[in-house]
Specification:
The structure holds 2 protein chains of 2 kinds. By secondary structure, chain A is of the alpha/beta class. Chain A is built from 9 helices and 10 strands. In chain A, a hairpin with a 2-residue loop joins β9 and β10. Chain B is mainly α. Chain B is built from 12 helices and 4 strands, in the order ααααβαββααααβααα. Classes of the chains: A alpha/beta, B mainly alpha.
Chain lengths: 270, 312
């Protein structure tokens, strides 16, 4: 279970480039729940994910995962509990290392790495089975460098790696956005398969309204560093991509209103 | 013949240096400039201990440990205090010059009247060749002691290479390899990159210190200047090795480093034999490294060189 309470983050504080990326976000995700995060560029959705992953420390607020306060844990320590897939398919794998070696690395996520051989016979067979279960035919290419695979294949493997040891929380950061439609489809199917099989608690940022509407059991919409909509239960089941688009439109108009209202007030009083 | 065997032996000793450079520059992608200092430190520490009547093997290993510590300091300066990598290396290298003078108490420590690892080579020679002073190798003749030294250093280089290779097949070694390949990914898989880099530089400079300790005993003295230019020398060996094996597999890179180091030393010996002024050696080494770095780009006919994705 993930509990985020009142987290705030300001980048470049006190400079002209100041960005208030998170302005008091509260979020509680029940175990086994799959939450999609949507929002415009700069709304803070990726920042939220990175705050949870530990890419930086938040200025205020607390982050608890499975009852443990991880607010001050460095990124590599949080990796024990968190599996991640990045947007860039090249970010999640080591290109000159083989598929088997990459998987071996992932099979010890957050654990002590000692002087035992990483790819002993039985270990490799175990990994081969996991790859074969994905149905991509990659099990015969375990000794090829991962850099020789396509973006979609690499992203599928990154997904497998993130869930190789069951994570307490799975973070997906627009992990299909950089893929061609066919690969994106395939990766989403695998995502669904992994999450459902292991009942993974998931936080997924996405640009795709159909993904947000049809997948998972909850959608939150962010705007300017805050959660502005939180749709779950029966409302989520009825949700259509058009509903989300119209919410974006509302938000756009509200923001415009903010600006024009401010303009009006300025003209009148300043 | 003696010249050939001598260059082979030094080439093998310096393949340990090439291993060190391979680990820092390639495996964890850390441009470590400690090298010139840590090599001399290894030589200085080992020589001082030998003069103080320590067992030569213990002295050699402590020399390696001293080099390793220097590497760990460089890595710590970088990841703990956020000092730029190059600057961290330069700081430690510069500081080591004084440290080395302190360790030796003077700028040069001769070892000729003390038992060193070369005494083991003498022992090996007398068991292998008995009382014969000159051994005929096919059509040439060479002193048995030189041949024994060559065999000894060959054994050391092969052992170090095999141990390294096996290390990079363990869970720990694999995680270290991943740092240079994709540090963002390995951090997301729970590896403390700063700590792992420190370990890598510890091991790398340990090997470099070992090279220094063995070199001092082979040439019969340790000198505060003995590290100068060694970084470029090691880089040249690694690049030469890479072009020989044409692979990114770690086992082949390790083999390539030995081959590169020996071949480079041979080329230098030949050049010196042809009348190259020894004073020009470092200039020529630097130019050779430059050519080795630039040549592949010219050979690819302007087609874009495939690069690794840049790491954040």
């Amino acid at each position: 279970m993930l509990e985020v309470t009142g987290i705030r983050k300001t980048f470049f504080a006190g400079t002209p480039n100041e960005v208030r990326a998170l302005q008091g976000v509260d979020l509680k995700i029940e175990p086994g729940s799959w939450v999609n995060v949507i929002g415009t560029n700069g709304s803070g959705k990726s920042t939220l994910l990175n705050a949870v992953a530990g890419a930086f420390y938040v200025d205020e607020g607390r982050i608890r995962l499975d009852g443990t306060d991880i607010t001050r844990w460095p990124e590599h320590r949080r990796a024990k509990l968190i599996g991640r897939v990045f947007q860039d398919p090249f970010s999640g794998t080591a290109p000159t290392m083989t598929i088997a070696e990459n998987l071996a690395l992932a099979s010890r996520r957050g654990q002590v790495r000692g002087l035992t051989f990483a790819l002993k016979g039985p270990r490799k067979n175990e990994l081969r089975d996991r790859v074969a279960a994905m149905g991509l035919g990659l099990e015969n290419r375990l000794d090829n460098p991962i850099g020789t695979l396509s973006g979609g294949q690499r992203q599928s493997l990154t997904l497998l790696m993130s869930a190789l040891i069951r994570p307490s929380l799975l973070l997906l950061d627009e992990h299909t956005a950089a893929l061609d439609p066919k690969s994106a489809d395939q990766v989403i199917r695998l995502t669904q398969q992994f999450i459902e099989r292991d009942q993974l608690t998931t936080l997924m940022v996405t640009h795709s309204m159909p993904q947000a509407a049809f997948l998972g059991d909850r959608v939150i919409m962010m705007d300017r560093g805050r959660v502005v909509h939180d749709i779950s239960g029966p409302d989520k089941k009825r949700l259509r991509p058009e509903d989300l688009l119209s919410k974006f439109e509302e938000l756009r108009r509200a923001n415009q209103l903010d600006e024009s209202a401010a303009e009006m007030l300025r003209a009148q009083y300043v | 013949m003696s010249l050939l065997i001598g260059s082979l032996t030094i080439g093998l000793i310096l393949s340990l240096l090439a291993f060190g450079i391979l680990i820092s520059f390639r495996v964890v992608a850390f441009e470590d400039l400690t090298v010139d200092g840590s090599l001399a430190l290894g030589g200085a520490a080992a020589a001082s201990l030998i003069v103080a009547d320590w067992n030569p093997i213990a002295a050699t290993l402590l020399g390696a440990l001293a080099g390793a510590t220097a590497g760990a300091v460089t890595a710590t300066l970088h990841h703990r205090f956020d000092i730029n990598r190059l600057l961290a290396g330069i700081l430690v290298m510069t500081a080591l010059y004084s440290v080395n003078l302190r360790v030796m108490g003077k700028s040069n420590v001769p070892l000729l009247s003390h038992p060193t690892v070369m005494s083991y080579a003498d022992g090996l020679a007398s068991t292998l060749f008995g009382d014969q002073r000159l051994i005929s190798v096919s059509v040439w003749e060479a002193p048995g002691r030189d041949i024994a030294a060559l065999l000894l250093m060959f054994a050391v280089a092969v052992c170090a290479g095999v141990v390294l290779f096996l290390f990079f097949r363990t869970n720990l070694g694999l995680a270290m390899l991943a740092i240079g390949d994709n540090s963002r990914m390995i951090r997301a898989l729970g590896v403390n990159v700063g700590l792992m880099t420190t370990l890598a530089l510890f091991i790398g400079n340990g090997l470099i210190g070992l090279a220094g300790a063995l070199l001092a005993q082979y040439q019969g003295f340790a000198d505060v200047q003995m590290g100068i230019g060694m970084l470029v020398w090691g880089v040249a060996s690694v690049i030469l090795g890479e072009s020989l094996v044409r692979s990114k597999k770690i086992g082949l890179l390790i083999t390539g480093a030995v081959m590169g180091s020996v071949l480079f030393r041979l080329l230098v010996a030949i050049a010196l034999r042809w009348g190259l002024n020894p004073n020009d050696l470092k200039l020529i080494t630097a130019v050779a490294v430059f050519v080795a770095l630039v040549l592949p780009k010219f050979l690819s006919h302007g087609s874009r060189v495939v690069r690794r994705p840049s790491r954040a």
